[in-house]
Amino acid sequence: MAEVPLPFAGVLRGLRTEAGMTQEELAEAAGLSSRAISYLERGEVSAPHKDTVRLLADALGLAGPARAQFEAAARGRGGAVVAATRTLPRDVASFTGRQRELAELAGAMSDAGTVVSIRAIGGMAGVGKTAFAVHAAHRLADRFPGGQIFVPLHGHTPGQQPADPADALATLLVTMGVPVAQIPAGLEARAALWRDRVAHRQLLLILDDAVSSEQVWPLLPGSGGSMVLVTSRRHLSALDDATPISLDTLPPGEAAQLLARLAGRAGLAPEDPAVGELARLCGFLPLAIGMVARQLRHHPVWTPAGRAAELAAAADRAELLTTENLSVAAAFDLSYAALDHDRQRLFRRLALHPGTDIDAYAAAALDGSGLAAARRGLEDLYDQYLLTEATPGRYRAHDLIREHVRALAARLDPADGRDAAVTRLLDYYQHTAARANTLIARQARPAQATTDPPAPAAVPAVAGMEQSLAWERAERASLLACLDHVTRTGQHTRVIALTAGLSGLMQRDGPWAEAIARHTTAIAAARHLGDRLGQANALNDLGIVQRLTNEDAAAAHAQEQALGIYRQIGSRLGEANALYSLGAARRATDDSPAATQALEQALGIYRDLGDRFGQAQTLNALGTLLRLIGEYPAALQAHEQALGIYRDFGDRLGQAQALGYRGLVLRLTGDYRAAAQALEQSLHIYRDLGDRLGQAQAFNALGDMLRLTGDYPAAARAQEQAFDIYRQIGSRLGEANALHHLGLVLQLTGDYPAAAQAHEQALGIYRQLSSRLGEANVLHALGIVLRLTGDHQAAAVAQERALGISRQIGHRVGEAEALNEKGTLHLVSGERALAEGCHQQALEVARAIASSGDEAHALAGLGRCALAAGRTAEGEAGLRQALAIFERIGAAEAADVSAELDTRERFRACGR
Known about the structure:
- By secondary structure, this protein is mainly α.
- It folds into 7 domains: 67 residues, Orthogonal Bundle (434 Repressor (Amino-terminal Domain)), CATH 1.10.260.40; 148 residues, Rossmann fold (3-Layer(aba) Sandwich); 46 residues; 83 residues, Orthogonal Bundle (Arc Repressor Mutant, subunit A), CATH 1.10.10; 188 residues, Serine Threonine Protein Phosphatase 5, Tetratricopeptide repeat; 76 residues, Serine Threonine Protein Phosphatase 5, Tetratricopeptide repeat (Alpha Horseshoe), CATH 1.25.40.10; 78 residues, no CATH class.
- Helices cover 68% and strands 5% of the residues.
- It has a 5-stranded parallel β-sheet, with helices on both faces. The protein has a 3-stranded antiparallel β-sheet with strand order 8-10-9.
- β9 and β10 form a beta hairpin.
């Protein structure tokens, strides 16, 4: 058989790896250049000089037969190389974390059987893939008696091409003891011989820094209980049967532990705030943490706080994270260099985004490309672990990479090109946010005097309320980041437009304090430009949010200013919007006549303009006002008209709102079954829409209904759910409402201390918010608890305050409730005449506002007063009238009144 060329390159690489040396370390030990070693290992030197071979053999510590075989391979002659099947690099004592992934690997061994187990360990540059694989291999070594072999594939080694699979196979075969002369020339032949040699061995193989699945395939054993750990900066999605293990950055606590351990300074603990800050500024990336820790170790006079300050001030932190000839920036540059020209440009432009995450539409705007091209580009960058995908279709780069690539963009791209990319992005967000906000705010906005930006080539579907809300919620952080950018750079027109585009979302989701600050900034920007329409719109938006935070007087003032400007510039739609908002503000400040007038004027203008959404919104607001002042039939009619409009348009959110309002009115009129049905329908729609605020409001109202019908456990659960959501979304008013209604349930179940605590918490919030209505309601409820616990004097004070506030604000239901409770308190205190007078007043109010529940309570109270006075027939008649109403409306009090009458009947039957 003819002698084949002998792979000295593979022999040298295998022996160097076995010795645990880098190319640079071998070059230094042999007195050669690193370039010479690289040439030899790549096979670019066909016949190395004998002196070079001698120096290399000395540096590798070869002697005897091993040295002779090495020299024979250099001369192109055969001979076996001593097998070296335990070539793992040194494990590091400082390895930290990754316990879940290590446990996963250990568990995989029990399921491996006779099939080769493949784990593709992926992650961004510097995340610690090789360290993890080596550490795991050392822990698992005793399970692989056939050997543990480390093969560097050099996917991202500076100055070195990725290893050719044929060369890697030659190294593996030499490692397994195959004589050099017996190594075949072709890739397929070498792969077949490799699979044959390891077929019955339990081998642990690390293929480090793979560039592709194609590079890995030929190196995989074919059978046996072997395990292969492949590390790569790519998602090796084409590697059949490979289980991916994607390494993320370290959790903050583990990152701080690693930094403190590597820094090696006495007294430096992971709990030190400066250590935690340094770990954060390193992006919790192991490579960066290791470098900054070594900097601290080798610079004793440096302090963690000082180094943290330097990193925080840097425009490109990666450039500061270096040790000797290694740097985080260089590691990133290798990943960047592996991209083609178009992907490099896309990545640089993505780094210009003011926010942290992006989808394909925003990427297309930045890059000036089509949607399909942007999607392919994002997927390619994700495939290279340069982007992560936290939610479907939304990508982000690690902070350090984004900073570094932004610095690259500043060096490589002209300023006008960078500015044009950001302008396209801002145009896209402004255009799409304006479209979405029209549906979210449910109120057409008067057109801005400025020219709208050009429509982007690719715009997501925001055709309905649900889509619009979903888009703005997904883009909220990006929109706010863009708003911060234009505010910082003095782009006043953009400030006005982007704030307006976010107004509906901020009203719904809060936090309202931030919304107030944003609208205030927009007002200032509009004044700076002399943009009267923009100023009026921003004032109107400000007033709406101020009303949500119970700053009712300020809200009314802002909306009166907006109304004045709209009238001056002749904007009928703006006038209607301001009147609508002013009506709601006036209602909140307890000025019911002014509120009614404003809402009716707004309704008239919306009708003149043919704006049916405006009509429906105003009808709901008017219905709410009518409910609060006790005009229930008119309130119910208004909400039903609004519901009809929303159904005509297929507007599910509007339907949910109108059904919820309708349920509240039906509850007050005593139709509990119909009320519960309406509220359950409302809750179902809110859940379908993912509307958290709507769900909380529905739970709150439904819980109150369940309380009234006697299902106390379900009522408590509903109020707790409402409270949790209100707290999560930052609605203080909602929290107070849920606490108040939970207190009512706790009171009815006899847990008076917990009920009092809930009411006290609610009262504190209502007073902070200056909610007079809430204060009146909770004082009434707290008074009942005080009576039940025997503190009649404090109970009387609470009810008197509740009655006074209710009368001041025109809250007729609250007035009837307080009067009935005062009557009950007088009766138990032996003041029958005063009790009878209170119940009679309550009965008159209840009948005037058609409140069946309050009417029944008043009748029951009057009946008990008559019984106390010895007017038995009159008293029992009053109780029967109350029972009939309670039973008709399905109220829980029916059982108590029925038992009361039954007891009297039994006593009468016994002759007592």
